[in-house]
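For reproducibility, we list the full input for the C2E complex.
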Amino acid sequence: MSQALELRKRLLLPIALGILAAAGAVVAGYYLLAQHDLDEAFERKVEQGQVALHAMLDERGKRLALSADAVLNDRQLMADMLARDRHALLQHIKPLFDHLRAAQQITHLYIYNNDQTVFLRAHQPEAYDDLITRATLSSAVNMRQTAIGVELGTLGDLTLRTVTPWFDGKNVIGYVEIGQEISPLIGELKRVFGLDAFAAINKNLITRANFDTGRQILGRENRWNSDGSVVVIHQTMPSTPSVVTQALETGKVTTPRISLTAANGKHHFHLGLIPIEDASAELVGHVALLEDVTRGVTDIVNHVRVVGMTAGALALLLIVALSNVVRRAERSIAQALDEQQAEQNKKDRARLKTIEDLEANALYDRVSTLPNRVLFLDRIAHQINAAQREKQTFAVVIVEITNHKALIDTLGERLLDQLLQQIAFRLKEGLRKSDTTARYTEDQFAAVLPAVSLEIAVSVAQKLVNLFSNSFAVENVTVEVRATQGWALFPYHGQDIDTLLRRADTARRSAAQHHNEFEVYDSRKESAREQQLQLLAGLQRAIAHDELQLHYFPRVDMRSRKINGVEALLRWRHSEQGSIPPDELIPMAENTGLIRQLTAWVANRALRQQAQWRNAGMDLSLSINLSSVNLLDGNFAAQLRQLFAKWGTQPNTVSFEISERTLTSSPKKIGDAIKQLHALGCPVAIDDVGAGNSSMPYLKTLPVAEIKLDTSIIYTLPDNQNNVSFVRSAIQLAHGLGIGVVAEGVKNKAIWEMLDSLGCDMAQGYHICQPITSGAFECWLVNSKYGMDKRGLVCAVRIESE
Ligand code: C2E
Ligand code: CA
Ligand code: CA
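The corresponding predicted structure, in tokenized form, follows.
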């Protein structure tokens, strides 16, 4: 809008002023031109008037001269003159004079003597004999011919006079002068040219007395004005305006245009002057000419008015048109600007919307509209900062919908979304405004609760339990939602996001495991498990990346003192934690089911090694340890068969060791598994005998090839008599059933000798050899006192036994 105003101000205003100025100029120009024309016309008229006046005077003069001829040619008059008979002359001339006066407005008729004295005045017979020195007469006398000229008479009138010498044939007998007032001629100017005229003479050329007399004689009303240097002798107007008098006085026109108020209103006049000179070229007065230009002026004014109005109207039209153009331009500019602005706004809105959408998508869960994991993590980060600053605790809770999978199956995705929205709603209702509730994973919600102590956390957890205890209704379907919460508190359970969340999740898992609805993280429970979890992840990687190894634990036949076979023992050297003992690794693998893969790996690797040795001419029987999970795995036997086929293994060269603990924990199932292995053709050994519950009762009914007496028993030999008795009776019992006896943990000669004396069949232990790699085993065997067929064995390294 301001831009539009700016445009109008900057463009329209100057142009409008310009147009108005131009219109004004046109009007003023027209006015001046019209005035000039008017003035010029008048000047021409004055000039014409002057010419006309002179022409009239000339023509009148000639007429007067002709009239004079009537006197000069009259014999009677000449006779009277020659006779100097004044009386007779007057009588005879009187009718002629009267005639001329009536017909030609002759006012004077003089008869002069040769000496310029008046012989007779026909118009004033009583006055004669006075000397006349007028220029006209003098000129006629001198030139001896007719002289014509204007004369100022002594009575104050301007007259045109002709003086003609009167000849009697050859001699001049006198002079005849005929005169006429020129005032009527001046009146002619009005008639012919429409000009008012004023004739004035210089006062100093006459006397007042003569003037007044003259006025009386002529029957004029002009008054001798007391001041001023001129007196008006003739006028066509009733009175002489002062400006006219002034012009006549000074002989100059100062204001050519004058305004006069007459009875019929105001009139405008042009004023001009014609100087009047007498026959001797003396300036005797002036004739002032006035032209009534009221009409012209009015015309001009009217015209100017019309022109002005037209120009004004045109200007106005132009301004209006221009204003319209400008307004339209403004409008289109404004519109363009508006459109541009609207377009910009639209773009901005779209961009904002996009940003919002992106933000919402990036930070909020589409279904529940709760903050998503990303935003939740951010909120925790903020909370950590705030809590650190204000030295406060806060809580993090992870709520898992434990029956989520079942809910998907029963509700379908659409209804599940509705349910999730309701759950989100309940959670938000249950928590404070300052808490952040989020959708954490597909089946988990989470919340961060500022300024919450352990006691409050527990009470909130209980509140949430209550919330979930009420069923939900989704489109008339009643739905039970089971939820498990895991809680962790800052700073006790973690001081960074990852730790806090991991521990909340640990608590949640623990709760689920123990069928609790919630648990707060317990560091005592956790530390071992957490380590285990990490290990487990590592183990999976180790299997995948072949980081595992087998060590081989030789067993010696105590009778022949020959190597009878090797037990495959798992080794895992963790990249960070170093070697991890199988005692720790195996239970973990068992708990997670990873043991299947692990055993498969061990079996494959060991059978491969056995095949290699066999190919090298070393027939070594192989022992592989199994856990209960393997034995209960229905596929295990089939897997073994495949492996045997793969490596060309004779089943009777592979014995499987099953811990006594495993057997006694589930004798029936494990017994069946033992029978299966037996059916495969594989010997089965009961491991760790003596370490726990006795497996002896089962030995009678199960196809067991041998028992392995546990290290913990053997270690105590030969001093612990109880254990000596145990070993003795175990050997007797086994032998009685046709079962071989292996002693583990034969760590010294004394133990060996004791076992030897008790009739033990086989020995394993550090006294003989530690569990070692296949390569090391080969080397050891080459140099070992415990022999076997050494064909094809090559060893680059010599290893000292014991
Ligand atoms: P185990 O089957 O009873 O194996 C014997 C354990 O006793 C081995 O420990 C062995 O090194 C140790 N041992 C035997 N004689 C002596 C000795 O004279 N001195 C000393 N210091 N130790 C002796 P290792 O290798 O640590 O294995 C521990 C247990 O881990 C094994 O007990 C077995 O139950 C289990 N295990 C090892 N490898 C596997 C496997 O591949 N699968 C399964 N399921 N369990 C395995
Ligand atoms: Ca074993
Ligand atoms: Ca053992």
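The CA atoms of residues 506 and 521 lie 7 Å apart. The longest strand covers residues 265-277. Both points were considered when choosing residues for closer inspection.
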